[in-house]
Amino acid sequence: MKIDLSIYSLIVISTSGGKDSLCTIIETVREARRQNVGHRVICVNCDTGADWPDAEDVVKKQCSALSIPLYVVRPNISIPDYIEKRGMFPSMKCRFCTRLKTGAIDKFIRNLYPAKMESKILSVTGERREESPHRQKLADFEPHQILTAGKRQVFHYRPILEWNLNKVWQTIRESGIKPHPAYEEYGNERLSCALCVFGCEKDLRNGAKVRPDLAERYLAVEQRTGFTFRHGQSLRNILTGNE
Ligand code: SF4
Asked: Could you point out which of 87, 100, 110, 178 has its C-alpha 20 to 30 Å from the C-alpha of 169?
């Protein structure tokens, strides 16, 4: 789906530094430049406190390769601090980690364009349908219910929703921009928080290698509360290979 980007005062791409985020930036910037509105594109990265150690650096390099301004935001409380405070881990039913992340980006947009200011903003994210049953149902374009208020109109655009994995990697190869080393050096499937409750076991073991501090904190929460990292599966067992 191609949309008219020229009607937006600001085009904000949320990026984690992962492969899908990178393709979202490449695709959006390409189309925005074709429509002569490349100067209205910015990227926002949320430092969750649970990221791969060099995530921000990688995002900076990717945005700089495409000459796009980058803003880094932080939630009021980091994901690991929240997990420690609540004594529980995120789950499908209670995905507080995502809310912390998107909440920080939403706040950034609200501050840039208060509701009393007339504006039309496009919020761009990199979900792909093939990733999960939930994502299969997403719309590629829709009004942003949370951010639209007063004179501020916000729309949500997902330009790579229909892309498959081959297209993602092919686009990255053709761009010449380096993806996050987690993929090539560590063989990760996904790049997300270093220890994501939805990550595969290999990604979690890689995450614990690069963020032993985070693994220690999560293991301590398991020990203190008796709650496991995933329903019926402790992080300790995942990391030690015990089932
Ligand atoms: S990557 Fe995983 S842990 Fe991090 S915010 Fe997303 S769902 Fe939550």
From this structure: 100
